[in-house]
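From the thread on structure requests for the teaching lab: each student submitted one protein with a one-line request. Submission from student K.M.:

"Model HutD family protein from Phytobacter diazotrophicus, C-alpha cells only."
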Amino acid sequence: MNNWHPFSQAALPVSRWRNGGGETREIISWPQGTAEFDWRASIATIAADGPFSAFPGIDRSITLLSGEGVHLSDGGQLSHRLSTVGAPFAFSGDLSLSAHLLGGMTMDFNLMTRRHVCAPRVVVLRESGTVTAEKGGVLYAIEGEWQLPDGTRFGKGDGFWWSTSDSQAHAQWAISSCAQTHTGQGLLLWAAVTD
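Reply posted by the TA:
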C-alpha cells in the first residue's frame, strides 16, 4: 500500500470558478505534470446556479457529499436531480449542462475519465467491504471513521488516492468501518478508474 497518497479536503488547493459560482479542490490529475489528463478527481463547491463546463471526450461521475443538491439539465437530453448524499450519477462530459441549486450551497465529488483510455466506477460503502485497486482511484470518507488494511485510520473529509501498475490492478483491499455516526452509519466513497 506504499502507493497510497493521503489528503484532507480542507487542505486541498482551491481554484475559484471564473463565473464566480463555485470552486474546485483538485485531489489528483493523472498522469501528473501533463497538460492532458487520463483521469482527474476533485471536490467542488457549488454556491450559485450556473453552467457546467463541457469536457468533450470525457466521461464524468458526480456524487453529492453535502447540501440539498442540484438539478442538472441540458435543456432537453438530460435532466437529473442530484439530491441524495452518496448516490453517484454518471454523464457525458460532451454535454453543456446547467446546474440549479435545490437549496443552499452543495459539495460534490467529481471523477472525470478520458473516453477510450479509461472509465469511471464510483461506489459508496456503508459498512466494511473490499475494494479493487483497478488502474487507480480515490477513497474518501463522507461520514464515519474507516481503517485501511495496514491499520491506518481516517475520518470524515479525509481520504487517499492511488495509481497502480497493470500487475497491481486486481489487488483487493479490505476496508473496515470503525465508528458509527449520529445517523448510525458511515459513508465511504470508492472511485476507481477502470479499463
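TA comment: The chain has a mean pLDDT of 91. Residues 31 and 143 are 29 Å apart (CA to CA).
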